[in-house]
């Protein structure tokens, strides 16, 4: 007896449904096994091995607070030799690098015109002196005549006035002669300070104007650094504080000391100029660039190396070790400073003695398991 067609169709559908269920269950089982294997791999990968050099402890320490400073070196004593008289330069033999002494004659300006002026002024003074003598003799004669009653006292008064006028004219002429001598003396170019020639701006035979620059002299025995600081930083700077500088061209650091502080700010930038006297060191030159740190005080606080603080989140944090796992601890930064040449920063939020990962370890996820080498495990 033949089965109805609908029963045959229902049987086929049941077989297909059963096969689909079997395939679904098998697929889920395979996915679960793959997920477990992936989690096991991630757990294995999340384990980080640390050495002793990767971990530091939060501890209370004394920090040397410093300010970063930079600027160019300048000679404390320097001078520009200018022409105090106009004329042709003669006898200028000093060149860049030559040593000179204060008062040394460096060159001259052609004196022909100035010598003529001196002679002219002296002759005018002599003529005025002759007029004084004439007026004096006239006064003496009139005085005798008045005493004898031959002339009136009015004539004597006129003689007195003539003598006073002649004497004033003589004094003016003498002052003119002195001024001409001074102009003649100004034709001599002398070094105002000891030092070396840094610039020679004119050559022999050139005609220069009054106050034209001729030579620049610098004294390298005393150099200073001119550093610009913000108004807030300058408040903490005082005369006598010490600094360590790195100067281009020198392999060793150079010591410096705050000599003085400018009482006014620089227009525009509102910065304050601080002048540091630099320790005398062979090889220093005016204009060399220097940078370094200025010690402004000490502070005792819970601190960590600056490199341990991470800023790849909205708030700074450090990576600490808690029960063998990495934890992210948010911190508030305080005073900065140095300890044994390492940049340090005060941290608030991290407990005293907490173990913190250095920045060289890199960023790790919270919860990352860590293992410790024997050296790290025995680290105090």
Describe the structure.
Residues 375-380 have low confidence and may be disordered. The chain is of the alpha+beta class and 380 residues long. It has 5 helices and 20 strands. Helices cover 31% and strands 38% of the residues. A 6-stranded antiparallel barrel has the order 3-10-13-12-11-14. Strands 7-6-4-9 form a 4-stranded antiparallel β-sheet, with no helix packed on it. A two-stranded parallel ribbon has the order 1-20. A hairpin with a 6-residue loop joins strand 12 and strand 13. The longest helix is centred in the N-terminal third of the chain and has 41 residues, at 5-45. Among the domains are: 48-64 and 299-377, conserved putative lor/sdh protein from methanococcus maripaludis s2 fold, CATH 2.40.420; 112-185, Helix Hairpins, CATH 1.10.287; 220-297, Efflux pump adaptor protein, beta barrel domain (Elongation Factor Tu (Ef-tu), domain 3).
Task: Report the radius of gyration as a whole number of Å.
Answer: 46 Å
CATH topology of the domain at 48-64 and 299-377, by name, is: conserved putative lor/sdh protein from methanococcus maripaludis s2 fold
Strand content: 35-45%
CATH class of the domain at 48-64 and 299-377: Mainly Beta
The major beta sheet can be summarized as: 6 strands, antiparallel, barrel
The topology string of helices and strands comes to HEEEEEEHHEEEEHEEEEEEEEEEH
The N- and C-terminal alpha carbons lie at a distance of 92 Å
- Total beta strands: 20
Task: State the low-pLDDT regions, or none.
Answer: 375-380
Alpha-beta content class? alpha+beta
* Portion of residues within helices: 25-40%
Shape: rod-shaped
Order of strands across the biggest sheet? 3-10-13-12-11-14
- The averaged pLDDT comes out at 85
CATH architecture of the domain at 48-64 and 299-377: Beta Barrel
> Helical stretch count?
5
Keywords: Coiled coil
Protein name: Efflux transporter periplasmic adaptor subunit
GO molecular function, one term: efflux transmembrane transporter activity
Domain Multidrug resistance protein MdtA-like barrel-sandwich hybrid: 78-209
